Amino acid sequence: MSPSTIRKMVMDSIARLKNRFRSGPEHLKLGKLGEDLAANLLAGKGYRLVERNHKVDGREVDIIAVEGDCLVFIEVKTRRDSSFGHPLLAVDNKRRIRLRKAAQIYAARKNLRDISIRFDVVTVDFGIDPYGHVELIRNAF
What we know:
Trna Endonuclease, Chain: A, domain 1; 3 helices; 40% helix; elongated
């Protein structure tokens, strides 16, 4: 390879890296898009959104909402494609335990003693639909 070809390859690589750092990690942008689609779906179904990306003692809850007389803690899982399986598979037992604990702490801090709590999951799959196939699983666990 000639020096000019090598230089062009190096400059192209640097430009790609700059763009990557400028725009932020792709998985974070994908997750944010998934959460936005989930919030729109939930609002359209009558949920009243209370909090988004709420941190409780190091545990993050994607969406906290109210539906009827129920406080709902919602985990959003977004996938670019199906190479890691259905998004619901990512809500494993460890994630469920962390979400339940976060819900207990949240309810105690807000002095919400006599309210029903439910856990829903919203999956967003861009492998099925390029615009995002959004699915709500009520009372997921």
